[in-house]
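Dear colleagues,

For the upcoming journal club I promised to circulate an example of a predicted protein-ligand complex. I picked one with adenine because it came up in last month's discussion. The inputs are reproduced below in full, followed by the predicted structure.
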Amino acid sequence: MTSEPPETPPTPLLDVELVTLFPEMFDSFLRASLLGRAIGGGIVRVNRTSPRDFARGRHRQVDDSPYGGGPGMILRPEPLAAAIETAEAARGRAYRVLLSPTGRLFDQTSAVALAGRGRLMLICGRYEGVDERIADTFAEDIVSIGDYVLAGGEMAAAVIIEAVARLVPGVLGCETSTADESFSAGRLEYPQWTRPPTFRGLAVPEVLLSGNHAQVETWRRLESLRRTETRRPDLLLRHPLTKDEQALQDGGKTKRRKKPR
Ligand code: ADE
């Protein structure tokens, strides 16, 4: 008689440690959609540790006023350090990222780099800031998701988890779709349509119904360039037109001149 080997949970391809004073903020986010399925299937694992559990005193106070004066409260270093060290003692060393509006800007290139780390710790700040010794002692990277100030790092951590998790094989269920989408090569994604062929008087561009794959491909590349020029000229400055794209545009212009619409 053969017996089934005991079930061992699969090793996650992405293993995230969240250090947050508000672990409950992630409840529905981590359950929903493709990420929820990836967590259910063991491809992605997310553990949450709250510095509040390591705060001392009857009030378990995690913050205090800033030295030198000024508005707001600063997160004390001890509960944060204890949360970080406890999570790593339980599950191993992680690449530690502190979320802060003072960090370097997160983009698709950072998402790809973080996906390659495998095991990540996202440390969420709150209030007016975090004692600088946490950055000095623990952070390997300090990351901002944009030039605006949130009430804390939790939403930023959620953004990073989603951007990184969808790059992990098996999470999207459609691996090619990350290769040709917005930002992958400094270009915005081309526009897309689905059924019905006409909606409120707006018809789907004919070329997409033609079945001519080469024409569709050329049209999409041109649309992608046009959209990038109009909406994100900064991307074109950082990633100038390639020779191929220049030729494509020159060809496109000639064609459009011959057959304007
Ligand atoms: N915490 C507050 N604002 C933030 C931002 N823009 N990015 C990352 N963490 C933050």
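Two points we might discuss: Residues 14-165 form a domain with the Alpha/beta knot fold (CATH 3.40.1280.10). The pocket of adenine is lined by residues 99-101, 125, 144-146, 148-150, 152-153, 156 (CB under 6 Å).

See you all on Thursday,
B. R.
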